[in-house]
Amino acid sequence: MLRTVLTASVAAAMAFAPTLAPAQTTVDEAMAQVEQHAGRKTEWDGPTEGPAAYEGATIVVLAGDLTNGGILGVTNGVEEAAAAIGWDVRVLDGGGSIQGRTAAIGQALALQPDGIIINGFDAIEQQAALEQVRAAEIPLVSWHAGPVIGPDADNGIFTNVSTDAMEVSAAAAMWAFADAGGEPGVVIFTDSTFEIAIAKADRIQEVIEQLGGTVLEYVDTPIADTSNRMPTLTTALLQRHGEAWTHSIAINDIYFDFMGPSLAAAGIPGDARPLAVAAGDGSESAYQRIRAGQYQAITVAEPLNLQGWQIVDEMNRALNGAEWSGYLSPLHVVTPDNIDFDGGDRNLFDPANGYRDEYSAIWGVN
After folding, report:
1. What is the CATH number of domain 58-162+304-329?
2. So what's the pLDDT on residue 13?
3. 58, 227, 282, 360: least CB-packed within 10 angstroms?
4. Closest CA to 319 of 118, 56, 124, 133
């Protein structure tokens, strides 16, 4: 069943996305728009001024699920940046469950840190628990905690770090449209546990249909249970849609971690359709699949390690009573043609734009 109803919050989030002119968009024009995000990222376009390092801070990272490559990548970036600025970091893993994330927030409060980072789960899901954090006047900075990019006063978040999620979704959809010669048959994978995931999936559906493609199915299945669900789900989708299924588009690479064996069992080669397209995050396993030509064509990657540094910079601004930086980190369309630069040799999108030196200079820790 296709899901077509947009919530008010999703509609607001879509205001970030570029406007398409579907009737006039050709295959070549769609691919040209995608390729704008595929080039090298060598110029620093982030902040160059800000407060010096807040001394001796202790920060807790609340990781939604450390088996998720995106969350793990951001956590690694936070730890690297914290070492540079001179802070102590404690990472608590929510284990992919609502109960686990609630328990992690309770543990974080008991540690009485100077700041808390929400890493990869919906702030609304944990609204009651996070009210205790706000009551304790502990600054909150987040990654992918909702569809709002930047300060989120309603949820008490100093700033929510993300690429433009709607632009990520549009880029993934346009690539599939162009790769299918203007006639894609798409299955979309999302997780309604997360408001941002629904926003991204709805944007994918909107762009595909505006361009004249077909959304065969809109699949709502939990990210935390992909290992169990995706093998049998893939087989069932093949049986329902057959050759009409040209592309899978998921809101996260993790869906494709468990799809390949079922496709292989059906006699489908790794470089044949349905091809996998991820609208985030650029995990190590995604890079490996793209490089090997095994069941994933592209990922629209986020600079996870950079975003970890960005989160630490935003937390430093919060602790110093400064404004948020206003920085929106870049997205990157990873293809077999460009996979070896900007960190691709290490299986991640790590822009060669000198961000480590730039942030260290702001903090005065060079």
Report:
1. 3.40.50.2300
2. 38
3. 227
4. 56
Note the pLDDT of residue 146: 86
Distance CA 166, CA 205 (A): 11
CB-CB contact of 222 with 191 (8 Å): yes
Which residues, including other chains, have CB under 8 Å from residue 4's CB and lie 6 or more apart? 205
Please tell me the predicted confidence (pLDDT) of residue 25.
Answer: 78
Alpha-carbon distances of 278 from 53, 60, 120, 285, 293, rounded to whole Å: 36, 29, 17, 12, 14
- Got the DSSP string for 51-64? PPPPTT-EEEEEES
**Residue stretches of the chain with pLDDT short of 50:** 1-23
How far is 191 from 185, CA to CA, in rounded Å?
A: 20
- Residue 300: phi and psi, rounded to 5, are -95, 95
Q: Are 177 and 184 in contact (CB under 8 A)?
A: yes
| CATH 3.40.50.2300 segments of the chain | 8-36+165-301, 58-162+304-329
Q: Distances from the Cα of 206 to the Cαs of 3, 181, 186, 222, 309, in angstroms?
A: 11, 18, 12, 22, 33
47: exposed, middle or buried (Cβ count in 10 Å: 0-12, 13-18, 19+) = middle
- Answer yes or no: are the C-beta atoms of 151 and 328 closer than 8 Å: no
**Closest by alpha carbon to 321, among 163, 137, 161?**
137
Under 8 Å CB-to-CB from 65, ≥6 apart: which residues?
71, 93, 94, 95, 96, 120, 121, 223, 224
pLDDT of res. 69: 85
Q: How far apart are CA 99 and CA 109, in angstroms?
A: 16
Q: What own/partner pairs with CB < 8 Å and gap ≥ 24 does 225-230 have?
A: 226/254, 226/255, 226/257, 226/258, 227/257, 227/258, 230/255, 230/257, 230/258, 230/259, 230/262
Model pTM score: 0.85
Q: What is the CA radius of gyration of the chain?
A: 20
Domain boundaries 8-36+165-301, CATH class: alpha beta
User: Which 8-state DSSP code applies to residue 344?
Assistant: G
